[in-house]
Design a protein that fits this description.
7-stranded mixed sheet, 6 helices, 215 residues, two-stranded antiparallel ribbon, binds S-adenosyl-L-homocysteine, alpha/beta, Rossmann fold, 28% helix
């Protein structure tokens, strides 16, 4: 029988801790969320590999290191109201759900949103709501958000995100063109946005009103 918990422990040691992820809460969440359950094939031999994996609809679940890095950049303490743009498999949403009070996640593909909802429910994550829509518009109904995480490549900080981010809030987003981006942390202080660049990265594009046009 395959030992998924042992695979996750190894993933955390070799891919995350060794590369500098140090927030103990983030490491614990990455060790406890069953990544394999969010894949099309939960028995995928590469479930904990150091790479993204296809999840259907032309989309991918991010590499574990990128999930951990973005989560660490959010500085979550457990009380936050978080907005995620790009639910995909629902894996990142589950990691966020472990570390915050409530998560709202928006996905543009119905097939992905429905599957993510089902897995999250099956795993008893009751503090996550998955909505179908264009996340480049944020999700105004539940705003403001203490944190916003965008898991698709964006051409700029969309105005609705800036508006829906609470004062003192943090937003993590890959900013750039369709082929390469810079992971960026945006903080809102006295109504002004400050940008900090973290590293280069490659995400699938944000497609929508404030994103890119459909291929
Ligand atoms: N966070 C996901 C991976 C995201 S991949 C996970 O943990 O698995 C990026 C996702 O963003 C894809 O599912 C894609 O369909 C979605 N996406 C792209 N543009 C979007 C938009 N405008 N609104 C909502 N979701 C969008």
């Amino acid at each position: 029988m395959r030992d998924f918990a042992a695979e996750r422990k190894r993933m955390v040691e070799t891919q995350l801790r060794r590369r500098g992820i140090s927030d103990p809460r983030v490491l614990a969440a990455m060790e406890s969320v069953p990544r394999n359950r969010f894949l099309l094939d939960p028995n995928d031999s590469g479930a904990h590999g150091d790479h993204p994996i296809s999840i259907g609809s032309g989309q991918t679940i991010s590499q574990p290191y990128m999930v951990a890095l973005m989560t660490e950049c959010l500085h979550l303490e457990g009380t936050e109201h978080v907005l995620e743009i790009g639910t995909g498999s629902g894996y990142q949403a589950a990691v966020l759900a472990e570390l915050s009070r409530r998560v709202v996640s928006v996905e543009r593909f119905a097939e992905l949103a429905e599957r993510a909802r089902a897995v999250l429910e099956d795993l008893d994550y009751h503090n996550v709501d998955v909505f179908l829509g264009d996340g480049s518009l944020g999700w105004p109904d539940a705003a403001p958000y203490d944190r916003i995480i965008v898991t698709a490549a964006a051409p700029q900080v969309a105005e609705p995100w800036a508006d829906q981010l609470a004062e003192g809030g943090r937003l993590v987003v890959p900013l750039g063109d369709r082929w390469g981006q810079t992971l960026t942390v945006v903080t809102k202080r006295a109504g002004e946005l400050e940008h900090a660049r973290i590293c280069g990265c490659v995400f699938v594009p944000l497609v929508g009103e404030h994103g890119y046009a459909e291929d």
